[in-house]
Amino acid sequence: MTERIVVVGAALLSGGRLLAARRSAPPELAGRWELPGGKVEPGETPEHALVRELREELGVEAEPVERVPGEWPLTAPYVLRVWIARLLPGSGEPKPLEDHDELRWLAPDEVEDVAWLDHDVPAVKAALTAWGAGG
């Protein structure tokens, strides 16, 4: 059996809004929206991967607040796990540095206004549910 590879996603929340990132690559994903994040490297915890990925992809310092219950299958052997995260004070505004060409802060009633990657749809819904329950 192939070992699963964890991909972390950040439900990055600020001012009552969720950050969405539009993919610029690879071509088959370009133009679709996702939660920012990436693959957990060997020897790295998912939380450390989340912090590293947000630094690399968005140029910000953030911290995971809580894991969203559940996980979502991606193309095998990958699986998506999501954390609610927040920007650290003084981190600045996120910028699309790697694999994205646009970022948008979405209010809860705007979340369905973007074309999410299929596997991010249930993850985003779960994150909003967890966010509503906890914050």
TrEMBL record:
Q: Which positions are tagged coiled coil? A: none
User: What catalytic activity is recorded?
Assistant: 8-oxo-dGTP + H2O = 8-oxo-dGMP + diphosphate + H(+)
UniProt organism field: Streptomyces dengpaensis
Q: Which InterPro entries match?
A: MutT-like (IPR047127), Nudix_hydrolase (IPR020476), NUDIX_hydrolase-like_dom_sf (IPR015797), NUDIX_hydrolase_CS (IPR020084), NUDIX_hydrolase_dom (IPR000086)
Q: Give the top-level enzyme category.
A: hydrolase
Q: Which family does it belong to?
A: Belongs to the Nudix hydrolase family.
Q: Where is the Nudix hydrolase domain?
A: 3-134
Q: Which cofactor does it need?
A: Mg(2+)
Q: What is its EC number?
A: 3.6.1.55
Which SUPFAM superfamilies has this protein been placed in? Nudix
Keyword annotations of the record? DNA damage, DNA repair, DNA replication, Hydrolase, Magnesium, Metal-binding, Mutator protein
- Identify this protein by name: 8-oxo-dGTP diphosphatase
Reply yes or no: does the keyword DNA repair apply. Answer: yes
Q: What residue intervals traverse the membrane?
A: none
Is Chloroplast set as a keyword in this record? no
